Amino acid sequence: MAPRNTVDVSVRSAGSTLVRARELLRKAKLDFGQAHEFKTRLKLGVTVSLAVMLALSVLLVGGDSALIEYAEKPTQNMRVRTFESNAKKDPDILIVNIDEEALVYGDLPPFLGAKAEDAGNRYAWPWPRHVYNKILRYCREGGARVVVFDLIFYSSGPNTNQPKRLAPVMGRKLKIDTFDAAGDDLFVMEATAREDVALALTLSASARDKDVRDTFAPRYSTLLNAPDAYRDQLVTRFGHMRAGMLPFPGLLDGTPDGMRGSRGTPDAERMEQFEGYRNAVNADLTLNETPRLMSLLPIAPREKLTGVGALGVVNGVAEIDGTLRSLDVCAPLEGQIHAALPLEAYRLWVLSWAREALAQPTRRADFARRFPGLAVDDAGLHADGRVYDLSQSLRNAPINIEVGTARYLGASAPLDSSGRMQLRFRNFIDYHEMPSYKVDPGTYSQRGGAERPFATYPSVSAKDILLDYDFIDQNRRIEAAEANVRKLEGELAAATDDKKADAQKALKAAQDWRTKLAPRPGKVAHGDPANLVKDKIVIVAGSAEGLYDRHKTPLDPETPGTWVLATALDNLKQGDFMHEQPRWQVWAAAWLAAAIAVFLVLLLPKLRHSVPAILALALVAVVAACGMFALQQWFAVAAPLAGLFAGLTGGAAAKALTEGRQRAQREAFARQYMGNELVAHVIKQPGALKLGGQNREMTIYFSDVAGFTTLTETLGPENPERLVEVLNIYLERMTDLMMSSGAVIDKYIGDAIMCFWGAPRDLADHAVRACQGALMCKREMERMQPLFADAVRGVAPQLISPDGHVLSARAGINSGIVTVGNMGSSKRFAYTVMGDAVNLASRLEGQNKEYGSWIMLGENTEKLVRGQFTVRRLDLMVVKGKTKPTQVFELLGEAVVPDFIAQLVEYWETGIEAFRERDFERALQAFKLALPLETDKDDFNPSRLYIERCKAYLEVPPPPDWNGVYVKKSK
Description:
33 helices; seven-stranded mixed β-sheet; alpha/beta; elongated
């Protein structure tokens, strides 16, 4: 058998207070004891565990869309924000932000801002696309490896591209070539000049030009080696997207719109037309003479016409809570597979280094160290057991999907159950790493730099790049122009007379050109572009609030989409993704946690004992989740916590329905014999169940039914059941009232009740509670008289007095230091009180009959309640067995009483004072005034007693040494 609980012990140890309880105890153990058997508990635990596991399955079923994920995903966000740092971010990524400052700047160089005629030249959003040429030229000049535009240059038309315009020529409007508004053509020629630009592609359900969809988009497709299951996942996610938002055709084939008629002609003919077009652009007078446009020139020559280097998908699919944590490696479009933009940028990154290693054999060892698993020799790039000709730009390198892993050009990414890469987000960057801080640390704050910048990678405003590039271009032109002026000034000084005119003309032209440039060289904020972009992947994107490229991520609900792409590229380069926990482990953790919690609740004696253990297990789950996060593992924490909670709930419910119910029955059984106070004390302090006691100030109450002997003699012989009924009605109600006041029922002695206040629970107001309880019982006795009358009317109507009363009860109350505790033998004892104060309380109850009073108080009790109740001095008496007198009082009511009671007390006090001063005549008159005010004026009462005493002393005065003390000869 399992150890007995506290209630078992308390019931067994109730001592003499458990009258005839042995058989009841034996029956209770037989009825309820089986629930404590270990085997029974074990069977119950298995049953409850299975039920809880089944209930948990509702939360777990559904994979990534399971209900439990609504709780799990926020914890993942918390882990990222709390534990992730920025120390491991890839150093090769730089973000160029088209932020609010860039939009306000609008490509208006400050050296033009002072001119009123140029105030209207500021570009509004969307910018003419040739503005991006400056960013692109800056990056190339600084040695950037890849430039990624996280933008979709979706369409081209009159608003964005006007290589020919109507202009006044010699009084007539003619259509002429002028390229200052040919933004798209200029961007096409710049973006396709090298194979280092990647553009975005968004899948959508909208229609797209057939030539773009069917002719140009397939050129950017990717080979995919993957099982059918993976392809099915792609179709499920993207099958409804029948088209894509692709860049306009010129970016995909390198043909400016101004020469679109050459599409479909032989390559040589197209190249010849392109060269003519390029030369026309380079010679454009407006471009060459406008400071804000001249930095776009010259357009570089090329060997062949091709589109931009890469085109990648940027669609992101949010998870069940609307947060973007993962990214697909590719997506289908019109039967073709297109790689995600981060993979395409990675391909260009590898291609750039590989071509350098191919051209410079001394760099090949460095390439192999930079890209483990890849190698370059004269044959090309070696990857995945194959050799790729670099002239094909690695477009024929496939994405390989193998057992939950994607491999591409030496990089690998773990895939979750949905076939997506789980991104490892970096936390917010330290401001010391911001380019604007490195430019001038001392003025960083004055320039608006934040100590907690909203950035995860080094970023710079597009305004800074545009401004710096215009300054760089202007400074170069200023330097060249001023050098030319100095040279021509020297030539003029040395020229002969016949050549001075030509020299002056040349000098004047040079001076005129100089005046068209900025007045003075500008300060380039970031210095040499190589300081900022050397060997980097530069991502150009719109982050301004109005550009709407915002997503909910673990870092922030308004995360710029570029951060997601940068994170994926970072993870891909470093092989630093998060790993999803297999779903079977999530189920196992939840079920195991539930089973453990159930058994803890059922096997431990009390529910409160199991809660700390379950909380400790919950803490272990949380710590494990945090520890596994450091190892790049998404360890599920919501599932085991849900399992622990479900197990606790299920176990507690089972305990309540079995052991809890049985324990409650035992406790109720014990309370019937011991009372609430004692049972609560024993349960709280099991050590109290031993022999011993302590001294404590308490208040003791004794009550007895007046005339009970007559009642038993009348009802007992013929109607014993009616006698028990009347007595039980009386005891039931009196007990309830006393216990409601905080009393402990010590014992019943026939019709008598003994109870006390102040133990086992300390009660500072024990005397007040006793008086309140006594008054409640007195009032209740008045209210119950009709019940008693009804009970005896049919069998003994003579017991009903003329005023309708059947039973009355007298009480004695006394306070003092008593001994309280378990008293008896080791085999049988009771929790009770002993001492002089107890004996006096018993004597006071008996003395009520001699005085005609109902509730008699000892002097110690009166001192403790003085001012809180209405009392009157009854007498100075020496009770039987004592030698010292004690003053006794009668409790009449609360502090505020009816006027007649107050008047009674006033007359009484006058009379008792005169009586003790031996002025028996005056005392007699006072008591006669008090007599009509007595509540029992027709019966024997204290006023009638003292009237008799006064008359007796008037006839026979007491001896001279009389002090008013009455010595009692009986109890």
